[in-house]
């Protein structure tokens, strides 16, 4: 019987803060970078990359903004896909300062010009080949495919299109025109190459329903280091998770002590799969070279095949196999079409752009005009980019008002600060700026120019607008010291989104309060995928981490005790199982005072910057013609009638 049972059954500890801040360090389970080879969907399920577009604010309240002045439509080059003609020259007005469509087009081109141009060229090549072969894709076929995709995801068409718009920023017409139409056209161009064999269906069946290996992995960039880590793991396999947490360079899995999605057959790197399926539970693999990385696997469990008949899922398998085949065939078709066509990319070549400033590309001698490419970028990404442009305009106005200038030296200093904070210093003690820019641009899928415009400049501007370093109190330093260097509670957790279910699980635990059973219930009931996969294991809970009720409950537990039901948010409940406390780090406050002070000042400054921007935004008058929204600052409170009017004469 747990010591927590006697003072009240199913007690709920209230809490209003978001429950997502509870599990610091837990992320969605991911496979290491070197072996992430799950199929990429390039048709209707295509991922939409959205690089940062400056500071973004919550959408303004929707109401009809005043009409902007129209301009004349432009003619597109015959036969070349063109963007929609501009409807208004002014796309937004920020505190009486306009943002023109031309300005927005330039900003969109900086962020999405290359990506959109590539899709336009490919679509044109597909369209041209279809015309040569007499192939057509009707509107009825497009609508039927949209309906098929919606059905595949178990929702009505309207809901599916709404989801794409809200979650991926893909408008319904864009979805049909730029994703569904090319997909159907490619299928027709592929012809017999789209035929799926029985062997391929069996392979797909084995991938989805066959046996799998539940595994952990460690990824490092140096073979010698990998061999040393493997040696430690072989000596004590139970330490593999800790070794992954301490040494793995794959952040997604390191936070989960190396745990990855089960490895299945015919999905990723054949060498990885072969080694994984060779292992028995508890065994450690050899060091495997994958690209320029080195991987070590530990087999946690051999998962049996799912009990399902091949014929019962044949239709599903055929659909999946056709999609996989289309991804392969599409690349072949594009290579063939590009070899037959004369495609000259002007956008990517500075010398050609200087000679042909109004041209984005030439396809068989036909020009895709830069203005048309800008319009297509606006059509696809205009609303998002305009939000960033509006935000920058607000900051520019505030800087002018405060006579503040952001110099190139200021921006370089901010980049150096970020590099120093996020990467090891170079041998000479300088921050590795080149490596940092390479890392951030690759991760975000943006250019260095966009990084400087959308991240560095706004950060520097806000820092100057907010002012100098914030004061840090002794109490704040003490709390920071306890949070970073004090003891933490090691525990397992079950997260539930239903009070009744939480009560049922708590009753089960009260009857059998042991760690193994808690892990079983976490695996079965926790609504969080990471805690399910880790049988409830979470990062140790620290003091002053943002969940005072949860922290108070955790630190009151003794090893082997279960907590009450702790409410950490609306319809979010947690049950803890205490494993004990970590030892405080052997360091005094005075030894780390400088580091803690700098960290607290940085956090306070960030909060002040966010608060400043929110107030700046709230006090602005913004008409966004592209999104159809408008906002004005709330009217100042008028004086009362009694104070404003002269006193009436007594009768």
Write the layout of secondary structure elements.
Elements: E1 12-13, E2 90-94, E3 97-100, H1 101-133, H2 139-152, H3 157-168, H4 172-190, H5 198-209, E4 212-220, H6 223-235, H7 240-247, H8 251-254, H9 270-278, E5 288-290, E6 293-303, H10 314-340, E7 343-345, H11 350-355, E8 359-363, E9 366-369, H12 370-401, H13 408-422, H14 433-444, H15 448-466, H16 474-485, E10 489-496, H17 499-511, H18 515-525, H19 529-533, H20 548-556, E11 565-569, E12 572-581, H21 589-618, E13 622-624, E14 629-631, H22 641-644
Parallel strand pairs: 1-11
Antiparallel strand pairs: 2-3, 2-13, 4-6, 5-6, 7-8, 8-9, 10-12, 11-12, 13-14
Helix pairs in contact: 1-4, 1-12, 2-3, 2-4, 4-10, 5-10, 12-15, 13-14, 13-15, 15-21, 16-21
Descriptive keywords:
651 residues, alpha+beta, Chitinase A, domain 3, Triger factor/SurA peptide-binding fold, 4-stranded antiparallel beta sheet, 22 helices, 14 strands, disordered C terminus
Count of helical stretches:
22
The coarse overall form would be globular
* CATH topology name of the domain at 41-192: Triger factor/SurA peptide-binding fold
Q: What is the CATH class of the domain at 41-192?
A: Mainly Alpha
Uncertain residue segments: 1-86, 639-651
Which structural class do the helices and strands define?
alpha+beta
Proportion of helical residues: 40-55%
């Amino acid at each position: 019987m747990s010591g927590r049972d006697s003072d009240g059954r199913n007690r709920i500890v209230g809490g209003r803060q978001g429950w997502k801040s509870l599990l610091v360090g837990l992320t969605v389970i991911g496979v290491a970078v070197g072996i992430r080879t799950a199929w990429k969907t390039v048709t209707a399920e295509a991922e939409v990359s959205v690089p940062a577009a400056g500071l973004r604010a919550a959408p303004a309240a929707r109401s009809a903004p005043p009409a902007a002045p129209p301009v004349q439509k432009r003619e597109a080059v015959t036969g070349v896909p063109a963007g929609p003609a501009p409807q208004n020259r002014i796309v937004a007005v920020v505190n009486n300062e306009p943002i023109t469509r031309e300005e927005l087009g330039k900003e969109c081109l900086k962020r999405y010009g290359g990506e959109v141009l590539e899709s336009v060229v490919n679509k044109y090549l597909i369209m041209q080949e279809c015309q040569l072969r007499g192939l057509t894709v009707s509107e009825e076929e497009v609508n039927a495919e949209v309906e098929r995709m919606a059905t595949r995801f178990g929702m009505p068409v309207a809901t599916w299109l709404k989801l794409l718009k809200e979650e991926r920023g893909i408008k319904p017409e864009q979805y049909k025109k730029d994703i569904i139409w090319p997909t159907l056209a490619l299928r027709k161009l592929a012809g017999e190459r789209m035929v799926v064999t029985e062997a391929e269906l069996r392979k797909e069946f084995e991938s989805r329903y066959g046996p799998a290996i539940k595994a952990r992995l460690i990824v490092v960039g140096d073979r010698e280091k990998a061999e040393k880590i493997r040696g430690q793991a072989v000596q004590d396999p139970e330490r593999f998770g800790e070794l992954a947490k301490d040494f793995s360079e794959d952040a997604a899995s390191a936070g989960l002590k190396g745990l990855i999605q089960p490895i299945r057959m015919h999905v990723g790197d054949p060498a990885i799969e072969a080694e994984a399926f060779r292992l028995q539970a508890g065994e450690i693999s050899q060091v495997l070279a994958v690209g320029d990385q080195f991987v070590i696997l530990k087999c946690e469990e051999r998962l049996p095949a799912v009990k399902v008949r091949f014929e019962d899922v044949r239709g599903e398998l055929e659909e999946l196999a056709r999609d996989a085949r289309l991804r392969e065939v599409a690349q072949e078709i594009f290579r063939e079409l590009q070899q037959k066509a004369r495609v000259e990319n002007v956008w990517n070549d500075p010398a050609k752009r200087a000679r042909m400033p109004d041209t984005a590309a030439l396809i068989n001698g036909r020009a895709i005009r830069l203005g048309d490419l800008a319009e297509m970028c606006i059509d696809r990404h205009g609303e998002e980019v305009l939000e960033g442009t509006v935000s920058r305009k607000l900051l520019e106005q505030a800087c002018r008002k405060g006579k503040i200038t952001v110099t190139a030296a200021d921006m370089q200093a901010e980049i150096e600060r970020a590099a120093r904070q996020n990467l090891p210093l170079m041998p000479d003690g300088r921050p590795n700026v080149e490596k940092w820019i390479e890392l951030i641009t690759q991760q975000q899928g943006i250019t260095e120019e966009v990084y400087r415009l959308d991240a560095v400049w706004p950060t520097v501007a806000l820092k100057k607008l907010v002012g100098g370093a914030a004061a840090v109190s002794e109490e704040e330093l003490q709390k920071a010291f306890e949070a970073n260097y004090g003891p933490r509670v090691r525990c397992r957790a079950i997260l539930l989104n239903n009070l009744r279910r939480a009560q049922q699980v708590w009753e089960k635990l009260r009857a059998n309060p042991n760690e193994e059973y808690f892990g079983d219930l976490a695996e079965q009931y926790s609504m969080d995928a990471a805690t399910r996969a880790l049988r409830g294991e979470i990062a140790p809970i620290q003091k002053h981490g943002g969940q005072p009720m949860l922290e108070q409950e955790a630190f009151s537990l003794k090893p082997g005790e279960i907590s009450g039901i702790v409410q950490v948010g609306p319809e979010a409940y947690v049950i803890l199982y205490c494993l004990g406390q970590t030892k405080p780090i052997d360091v005094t406050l005075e030894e780390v005072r400088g580091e803690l002070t700098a960290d607290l000042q940085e956090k306070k400054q960030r909060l002040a910057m966010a608060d400043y921007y929110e107030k700046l935004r709230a006090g602005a008058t913004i008409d966004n013609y592209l999104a159809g929204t408008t906002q004005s600052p709330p009217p100042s409170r008028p004086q009362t009638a009694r104070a404003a009017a002269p006193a009436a004469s007594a009768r």
